[in-house]
Design a protein that fits this description.
129 residues, alpha+beta, Thiol Ester Dehydrase, Chain A, 5-stranded antiparallel beta sheet, 3 helices, 23% helix, HotDog_dom_sf, fatty acyl-CoA hydrolase activity, Tol-pal system-associated acyl-CoA thioesterase, 4-hydroxybenzoyl-CoA_TE
Length: 129
Amino acid sequence: MAHHFPVRVYYEDTDLAGVVYYANYLRFIERARTEWAREAGIDQGRLRAEQDIVFAVCRLEADYLSPARFDDVLDVRTIVEAMAGARIVLMQEIVRGELMLFAARVTLVAMDGQGRPRRIPAPLLALGP
């Protein structure tokens, strides 16, 4: 099941050509991942404080398919593809209407504050595919 997160493109998100600067797509999908976790009941601050678990991107494959422009309203879709051990693989897409603008496969790893891998907590695993 896809999680949806709306984003409006502001002037500050665009480059000299008037299109969304490529790095801002990564910011949009980061926000969407945070909201996906929050809406799933995962309090990342509490997870860190109580279990010393944080998440980091360890791999990202991105395709820029069509430009977004100032004042566009976009939908960032987040779909869980796989979850096991310390890894979560998400597919994230940014669309405007029915037109896909950006697609990324993001691999996250759960780790402790020292950077050592940690198992994904059972409540989060339950959200998997």
